[in-house]
């Protein structure tokens, strides 16, 4: 049995030094509602997520340097359906707790797991909460309101709010408990390493798919060769579809790694696109 397992069991049995106390859960529950209050193009919900974890991280890391390093870890890009965010928050706390106890723990795996879960959990969250529960609740409320019943909007708000709040409370506990048990079981094997690797691959796949679906760039340039018009974009599509969005994305990544501030990259994109469209280099959206 590992030292971490012994420490965890002893702590739970005695009730001393327990990380996830009711006040910690309460703090995470209230703070998670700020997850969309500080969004940016390069970080999305990262700062709100970090704010959600601030109190448990302070308890896990009494030393200021370790605490600030943990906060900084959670300022990496993060975006997720807010209803299921507490699951990842609870899981992150359990992993941070393990990292504080095990000097060999790879802290990069925390963000790898988060990135790997963003797409799958958001798919579930969007389908259930935006596409199902809200529609069903609105249908009931609209049905009542259509008959002149003033309780229509109230019933809608109650149904949706109860489901929303219950999910946020339950998934936070589930994320922490599942994470703790999983970390204990994988402490003696390579399961964490394999999962981290798999989550990293999944995360990169998700990011790659985002480039293809969310970045749009095409050229309107046409060349006349031997009396025949050749559209440059058609040539690109035949040889390497999506090459211009890919080049644009990697250019932005290269500039970011060179230390260029995100706001300047965004302003540069605006300027180049406007100038390029005016000159006929890029096709208007």
Task: Give the tally of β-strands.
Answer: 2
Order of helices and strands: HHHHHHHHEEHHH
**Main sheet summary:** 2 strands, antiparallel
Helical residues, percent: over 70%
User: Over the alpha carbons, how many angstroms does the gyration radius reach?
Assistant: 24 Å
- Estimated structural class: mainly alpha
Low-confidence stretches: 1-17
Describe the structure.
With 285 residues, the protein is mostly helical. It has eleven helices and two strands. It has helices at residues 3-14, 22-31, 46-60, 64-73, 85-101, 108-146, 151-186, 191-214, 232-239, 243-257, 262-279, and strands at residues 222-225, 228-231. The protein has a two-stranded antiparallel sheet with strand order 1-2. A hairpin with a 2-residue loop joins strand 1 and strand 2 (228-231). Helix 5 (85-101) packs parallel to helix 7 (151-186) and helix 6 (108-146) runs antiparallel to helix 7 (151-186). It is globular, with a radius of gyration of 24 Å. The protein starts with a helix and ends in a 6-residue tail after the last helix. Residues 1-17 have low confidence and may be disordered.
Write the layout of secondary structure elements.
Layout: H1 3-14, H2 22-31, H3 46-60, H4 64-73, H5 85-101, H6 108-146, H7 151-186, H8 191-214, E1 222-225, E2 228-231, H9 232-239, H10 243-257, H11 262-279
Antiparallel strand pairs: 1-2
